[in-house]
From TrEMBL:
PANTHER family the record matches: ENDO/EXONUCLEASE/PHOSPHATASE DOMAIN-CONTAINING PROTEIN-RELATED (PTHR36191), VWFD DOMAIN-CONTAINING PROTEIN (PTHR36191:SF4)
Highest taxon of the lineage: Eukaryota
Chain ranges of the UMOD/GP2/OIT3-like D8C domain: 54-147
Keywords tagged on the record: Disulfide bond, Signal
InterPro entries (alphabetical): D8C_UMOD/GP2/OIT3-like (IPR057774)
One Pfam family matching this protein: D8C_UMOD
Protein name: Oncoprotein-induced transcript 3 protein-like
Amino acid sequence: MNISNTGSVATSPAFDPCHRYSVLDDAWRAANNTIHDNYNILKCDTNVYWQGWYRMFYQGTDAHMPEYCVRMNRCGSHAPLWLNGTHPRVGEGIVTRQVCGHWKWGSSNAEDCCNFANPPVRIKACPGNYYVYEFERPFYCYLAYCTDVGDIAFNMKAPEPTDGPTPQPNIGTTARLPSSVFYPFGPGDSYSSRVDDGSTSINTAQSFRYFRQALTRIYYLI
């Protein structure tokens, strides 16, 4: 397999993405995060509504996509997405790079670092030694963009301590989480009775995924 810089300098947007971006800091995207074949925890970036530019972080530190073939079942997904090329340097502007998903194919289960040719991403190197990315939705599940964390040990952030035991949510009910946010768990955004619980609901502009359900409503306490 040849690692190459694929694509060319792309058309610049009307604004500088180095100063207008969203933060992507999911700890599970770490390239050293190994998952097991459990469909309840697998991540898939096809389900993400990608819009605009993103700056990657890990544990509060600037991070970037790996420029090497990441092992299968890493980054919270089956086929980890890595950058098949090098990052640009400051002053090179916005460039386009190929993204590959590592997976196996055929009856022989032979591994292929670029089994999935993901839509290319646009990247810009910014002053301050960081990158911003314009991600595209992968074609399939389960694929997810990786974060290169180097030698940093993988660590999911622990929940904030509470004054009492953490309530355990029950599927099919509305659960009270430590953050005092109410999430509907039932299919079709259904929820159990909230009589006298004091919660308020709001609708979201975009649906979000929670426990593999597409939801559009959040419950919270005022």
